[in-house]
Amino acid sequence: MRIIVYGVGGIGGTVAAASALSGQEVIGIARGAQLEAIRNNGLLLRTPERASRAHFPCVEDPTEITFRSDDAILLSMKTQDTLPALERLRAAGVAEQPIFCVQNGVSNERFALRRFPEVHGVTVMMPATLTAPGEVCAFSTPRHGIFDIGRYPSCRNSHDDALAQALEAANIAAFVMSDVMQSKYGKLILNLRNILEAALGLEADYGRFDALLRNEAETAFKAAGIVWRDFGGSDPRREQLMRSRPIEGVHRSGGSTTQSLARGSGSIETDYLNGEIVLLGRLHGVPTPANAYFVDLGARMIREKLKPGSIPIAQVEAELKAAGVVDRF
Ligand SMILES: NC(=O)C1=CN([C@@H]2O[C@H](COP(=O)(O)OP(=O)(O)OC[C@H]3O[C@@H](n4cnc5c(N)ncnc54)[C@H](OP(=O)(O)O)[C@@H]3O)[C@@H](O)[C@H]2O)C=CC1
Ligand SMILES: CC(C)(CO)C(=O)C(=O)O
């Protein structure tokens, strides 16, 4: 199997570097300063235990790759960047190759399945950050992360097994399952707090908002007949396989949404995290005002170029009350 990593950031960079370091054939698709750095100097993967430099070919566009039947294509850009990437894969002649959505949320699989027949979902549990062009940090030990893998919308096949074997060799714990979307919906609930951390800051006491977001999500899932696996922080595999540890000299700014704001990347994934709950609510007649509020807040932060952690908690409380989301906290 050859692994094509499309979007070589925190997650894609960790997967690409760890796979290349374990002797596997990898091609990255990256852009801007990241592409230039990888081409010039490879990609430095830093973990709590060590730093290792991986070298693998990296291109700017899928049309530069002669695709093979044994390619596995891993999408690891943020959801808002998926649609143009799928168009580039189509332009490059990709057809039957398996496409793995190594991404949060539950939208990417549907986007991909409109265009390609062999689509797979991956639940990503991997705290990782693109710290500088040419450098990624993966904070989990003893494994870089835990991935649940399966065919979309359900079932599993030999492509899942082949990727799981490759990931295991790269020190990423991989679990193949026939109902991976149950796992991805469970992870989505966990990611509803990405915007809380991004807006209010890592240290803010946002538990009461998290509970509101989660309640709305569970009600919307039930109304939509969606089954989810509630693993969250209590997944027993975490203690054994995935313990977050600091990396000397590196400050982890936070989760993936916080990282987008910190980098000033001009977009965030909230429309596909909290926005998924809002969409389900609207489709199934379930009110989701708290998730809708935070979708709007995320969009406002991008528009006004606000830094992570710059929204005071009292402002959020006042706005939620004024919007009639809650009477009091
Ligand atoms: N980071 C984390 O700890 C976790 C992230 N996730 C999920 O994993 C997915 C990836 O997140 P993450 O790695 O943090 O994101 P990053 O922003 O760190 O990485 C995505 C990379 O993809 C690049 N990219 C986007 N579109 C293209 C394109 N058309 N061609 C080439 N490169 C492209 C981006 O470039 P550019 O910067 O120029 O936009 C960026 O380098 C998301 O769905 C996220 O929610 C899940 C669990 C944990
Ligand atoms: C759970 C968490 C916050 C881990 O980093 C994540 O999925 C993300 O950053 O998007």
From TrEMBL:
<keyword id="KW-0566">Pantothenate biosynthesis</keyword>
<protein>
    <recommendedName>
        <fullName>2-dehydropantoate 2-reductase</fullName>
        <ecNumber>1.1.1.169</ecNumber>
    </recommendedName>
</protein>
<comment type="pathway">
    <text>Cofactor biosynthesis; (R)-pantothenate biosynthesis; (R)-pantoate from 3-methyl-2-oxobutanoate: step 2/2.</text>
</comment>
<feature type="domain" description="Ketopantoate reductase C-terminal">
    <location>
        <begin position="249"/>
        <end position="297"/>
    </location>
</feature>
<dbReference type="Pfam" id="PF02558">
    <property type="entry name" value="ApbA"/>
</dbReference>
<feature type="domain" description="Ketopantoate reductase N-terminal">
    <location>
        <begin position="3"/>
        <end position="150"/>
    </location>
</feature>
<dbReference type="InterPro" id="IPR036291">
    <property type="entry name" value="NAD(P)-bd_dom_sf"/>
</dbReference>
<dbReference type="InterPro" id="IPR013752">
    <property type="entry name" value="KPA_reductase"/>
</dbReference>
<dbReference type="InterPro" id="IPR008927">
    <property type="entry name" value="6-PGluconate_DH-like_C_sf"/>
</dbReference>
<dbReference type="InterPro" id="IPR013328">
    <property type="entry name" value="6PGD_dom2"/>
</dbReference>
<dbReference type="InterPro" id="IPR013332">
    <property type="entry name" value="KPR_N"/>
</dbReference>
<dbReference type="InterPro" id="IPR051402">
    <property type="entry name" value="KPR-Related"/>
</dbReference>
<dbReference type="Pfam" id="PF08546">
    <property type="entry name" value="ApbA_C"/>
</dbReference>
